[in-house]
Amino acid sequence: xxxxxxxxxxxxxxxxxxxxxxxxxxxxxxxxxxxxxxxxxxxxxxxxxxxxxxxxxxxxxxxxxxxxxxxxxxxxxxxxxxxxxxxxxxxxxxxxxxxxxxxxxxxxxxxxxxxxxxxxxxxxxxxxxxxxxxxxxxxxxxxxxxxxxxxxxxxxxxxxxxxxxxxxxxxxxxxxxxxxxxxxxxxxxxxxxxxxxxxxxxxxxxxxxxxxxxxxxxxxxxxxxxxxxxxxxxxxxxxxxxxxxxxxxxxxxxxxxxxxxxxxxxxxxxxxxxxxxxxxxxxxxxxxxxxxxxxxxxxxxxxxxxxxxxxxxxxxxxxxxxxxxxxxxxxxxxxxxxxxxxxxxxxxxxxxxxxxxxxxxxxxxxxxxxxxxxxxxxxxxxxxxxxxxxxxxxxxxxxxxxxxxxxxxxxxxxxxxxxxxxxxxxxxxxxxx
Amino acid sequence: xxxxxxxxxxxxxxxxxxxxxxxxxxxxxxxxxxxxxxxxxxxxxxxxxxxxxxxxxxxxxxxxxxxxxxxxxxxxxxxxxxxxxxxxxxxxxxxxxxxxxxxxxxxxxxxxxxxxxxxxxxxxxxxxxxxxxxxxxxxxxxxxxxxxxxxxxxxxxxxxxxxxxxxxxxxxxxxxxxxxxxxxxxxxxxxxxxxxxxxxxxxxxxxxxxxxxxxxxxxxxxxxxxxxxxxxxxxxxxxxxxxxxxxxxxxxxxxxxxxxxxxxxxxxxxxxxxxxxxxxxxxxxxxxxxxxxxxxxxxxxxxxxxxxxxxxxxxxxxxxxxxxxxxxxxxxxxxxxxxxxxxxxxxxxxxxxxxxxxxxxxxxxxxxxxxxxxxxxxxxxxxxxxxxxxxxxxxxxxxxxxxxxxxxxxxxxxxxxxxxxxxxxxxxxxxxx
Lengths: 433, 433
Fold this sequence. Notes:
Chain A is mainly α. Chain A has 24 helices and 6 strands.
């Protein structure tokens, strides 16, 4: 065990910074983590497990002795406990649920029924709520007893137990004990239903600056609350998704998904990519005679396509991110395109220069240098235009600007690269000698 | 103006949901937004401008009449006002700063001195702080007067005006007016210095579940506070960064950056990519004789490389995201690789089948079908391995698993594709006829 790990496991550090401790000890093998954690009292074990990432936490949980395991499942946030159970094998999960108190087990089962990445799976089912008739004094008394430090908004219920509104905790500080909570109540800024996809949860988080999101059943009764840090996790999850969708790996796939899911989600896009690859190949086919005469062209073909592909990917990435962060909008298409044309032209010139030197040293042919230099500039400008416009056009068409954007871009840059390189070579054929 | 926009601008909606209103009206041209917003009273105008994205907000600000412009700069959050000013031309910025009250202008100037994407640029300089000797009653009285709804943690200062600790607002509710705040004070969980990069700010947000982060000068005096929603923006910004760094566009570049910055940041990677492209080309060069005999190989070469490139990019994207979200760690390298080998093999078989049919229809050559089918499976398995291992190895070496990962991957998939396709073709040369 290294120094950082032993420091992280030292009692005091663990008590004050459970999340940091979790980050550090996650680097150890699961059995070793479990062996260390099993020694802790529940009050220290539970916060660390709460902060553990689901996959590692689930594995550690399996290695813990049974009493500790049950303590974690009962005392950790419900959403975290459900995430741990979701990672376990069907049989192991059932065995654990049997051992838990009936109420806890029922709540966990209900959560596990909701699909992954929905509000129902992210919510915590332990909620602080009061009847709307209660007064400030009553709320303070209950808060003192419960010692629930997570409460920020007190939920008020009407006579039918439906959510009527919320009272901010700070209002309790500013008003007399006799004040009815209903006087301090404000409408709930946003609620979710348990089947709402994570996407919508994040959308609400962003537009409303929320700390928590109450999840209601169709009758308006509280099922749970998605809290601050689960909202943050969901936000991070969503924000990093473009990297997958741009290359045609589905939204649903995770690094921990089965090969079977990966296969099903990726295959359709690979088949579409094959179609576009044939399209690009047919461009090469047009110039088969030229290639037959100068096989050096076949050798250099991937260089031109590779450079314009990379340059286009850079333009695509920057533009897509700008759209995702709303730094630019569809309306800015011309400014973005102008920037990318400029960048493509000057980068193209610089690359044409280095590439030209390389090709001259290899082939000793000024004609070949001229062909690759010219086509490099042309195809890198085309790549810049495509990189800027593909996501903007997708957004304009009401599509996710990321979906398959990389596949569309590669088609454009391949065709532009092949056509310019082989086309110019055919035109300047006499110089290639 | 369409229905959504007029609804968004209707007084009531704007008052309750300034952030949503900002999202909707951002789709209009800047002059039109300004014309609409100029009619609003400051109490409605400022929250909408606060929620506007910096680039669009800055443009709108330029179009507003001067009194409204000054109101926004004075009353909006300092960090937002600074972001607007940062987008303006040097001269226009100075002119505006001259018109502002000296104190506000000095604060804004100081913020603009910090580099972009640092804590100093993200912070709000308006902070609610009290001497540690004050009691609960005094704090409540000041809160009632100020009506500052953003306060969550009261900062307590020592005799030298240094940050001594914080008191959670809920504690005010739970204690008597005579209680000295110093009794309720807890240590500050995390602070930042104004030059801290956004990366570190996000790191603290994630590990500590923070609502706000206090920014201190070297003497421990409060400079400002980075609040909840700026932290969220920073988190989103960081989480979406991999898409740029993987293709060698720098961390610093934005869709709104100049071509000159784009050129400088992207060029080095394009030159490195050129080097790797020459490496791949040299593989093709080995087989120049084979290509001279069968030019159909040159036509199909991009198909094999393109498919394995796309398959590898899918594996890379899913693995990189898993690492970024901490769903997997370096320790899971074998499980991830096994998944990708599996997926690559079965996807390879399926693509080999469709591709084989296509090639047979085009060339009528069973030999060519055999060559492309075999090399497709081999190169897609290789692509899967590379896609899984590149980010994991980068992380193991202590590097950012995203940086240039796509460039490294493409080199591997190109070489694997070219080598397997042309190598098998050379071995089975007699069958190609």
